[in-house]
Amino acid sequence: MLIRNQHPDYRKPLEAVDAETLGIAAAEAVERFLSHRPNHRPTPLRSLPALAHGLGLGTIHLKDEGYRLGLGSFKALGGAYAVIRLVLEAAEKELKRPVEIAELYSPEVTRISAAMTFGCATDGNHGRSVAQGAQLVGAKSVIFVHGGVSDARIAAIARYGAEITRVAGTYDDSVAEAARVCDQNGWTVVSDTSWPGYERIPGLVMQGYTAIMREALEKLPLPPTHVFVQSGVGGIAAAAAAYLASRFGAARPTFVVVDPARAACIFETARTGRPVKLHHGEPTVMAMLECYEPSLLAWRILSRVADAFMTVEDETAVEVMNRLARPLGHDPVVVSGESGGAGLAGLLTAARDPGMRAAIGLDDKSRVLLVVTEGATDPDRYRELVGLTPADLMSNAASIEVK
Ligand SMILES: Cc1ncc(COP(=O)(O)O)c(C=O)c1O
Asked: Is the Cβ atom of 374 under 6 angstroms away from ligand 1?
């Protein structure tokens, strides 16, 4: 299903605070922070000419976030970045003077960060990023996981020294529990979703994500005409759309938000015109997108700058993982986890349907940009769904990058 944005705020400018948090200057600040991370390099941008030809499109490029900061997903950009920013802010408050990123490991600042504890709920990837950020600055982290998070994903978080708290229920229940326990203990909640009265920290998390579009635009020969981005609570989609709106204004690319049909909280919010909480149904294979309530901050942005909202079926997500593992022609191999290829699943769904194609103006001149938001963050699940091991594929996936 695909609907055009009908919200009364559609095409209104971003609110000033959102333009400031996610605009060009903010993305440059993120780049400065990233340059202090030892394993930072821009993720590969892959071109898929054979797939584009097969779908009757001009070009398709994928930003491959499986290679992000050693964590295997774009979430590495957000939680850890917010933790570092919050440590520097705490240091400024205590030391009563400006504190630069270069001072992060100074004795004065590490004394302050060692006394801090960061908490969050996660489907897997965000918690890993917060835990990594806390470990980098010598702080503690407590990560809240619901029953649907796989053991492999929990182990990957614990590897960064996090204390794990299991919560009964869904992702949304774990968000509420993380907020409650952190509040009780005086810990800082670094959530990737926002709620009334809690926007600044999710805004910092989303600010970290702006690096994706900034890096992609640096390498693309021409700006995209269409961008498809998948959504859980809407954070990455909103960060990407807001950054593109800041860069291109009214001439920005057509922006499509893609939800799993089984957890379509942004789609249903768009359809209803106001934030909705969905009932928990059958789980989706796109485990990282299994969110039933949108981030209010993300929705405020998407209601203005997203052009269309769509849903994709689980089968299409699995088809995408397999297509990327066994590509057409000379297209590169890309290793995508279950949620990583949802944007491409949206493109496949729309490109094959004449009504959807027309609704968003997809044709043989279209230049489409997508984000593979994760690699095989759960390798056993990947082998089950693709029949190959990520390790075999990664060694073959010689990076065919856009120079
Ligand atoms: C791999 C992956 N893709 C997409 C998303 C969706 O991001 P958001 O919840 O910011 O919409 C997530 C969220 O955890 C994710 O882990």
From this structure: yes
